[in-house]
Specification:
152 residues; alpha+beta; ph1033 like fold; six-stranded mixed sheet; DNA-binding; EVE domain-containing protein; 5hmC_binding; phosphoprotein; PUA-like_sf; THYN1-like_EVE
DNA sequence: GCCAACGTTGGC
DNA sequence: GCCAACGTTGGC
């Protein structure tokens, strides 16, 4: 099973919200590279690090699993939604989402620590100017980050 | 709030 | 197909 990292702004949707809901769709991905990964590679059973961005405590905060593979993100059709895309249509949807299920919180592994770890230097996350909201994580990187939590 | 980095758009 | 302008992301 593959492993991934999903970014979210906790002011909009946090790991705590996911825990309360237990399951959630992952809507609002509006980047072609991220979309293509969801479409082509993200499968039921894959594990996902949840990452909090644009907030006080930036970093990896928990784990979820994929429970539903790519299907159309209906927010793209809703003019009231911030994720509305006027160029998309139900007949030819442009954007998709997956569903995930909460697994557990992790003790925060801050971006600062991720950047300081040479074993993680190849992660898109720690590269300069990174903007990818969904990215693959290798088994080795996954284990390294788990080790950094001290929780395994 | 600032600003660097990046993706997208659109004129040509 | 190039590339400048623009909008967005995201750390700080």
């Amino acid at each position: 099973m593959a492993k991934w990292l999903f970014k979210t702004e906790p002011d909009t949707f946090s790991i705590d919200t996911l825990k309360q809901q237990k399951v959630s769709c992952w809507e609002g991905v509006r980047n072609y590279q991220a979309r293509n990964m969801m479409r082509d590679a993200i499968k039921v059973g894959d594990e996902v690090f949840i990452y909090h961005s644009s907030c006080k405590d930036v970093g990896v905060v928990g784990i979820a699993t994929v429970i539903k593979e790519a299907y159309p993100d209906h927010f793209q059709f809703d003019p009231q939604s911030p994720y509305f895309d006027p160029k998309s249509s139900p007949e030819n949807p442009r954007w998709i989402m997956v569903d995930i299920e909460y697994q557990r919180h992790l003790r925060l592994v801050s971006l600062k620590r991720l950047k300081a770890n040479p074993a993680l230097a190849e992660m898109p996350l720690v590269k300069r100017g990174n903007r990818l909201s969904i990215m693959p994580v290798t088994d080795a990187q996954w284990q390294e980050i788990l080790t950094m939590t001290g929780q395994f």
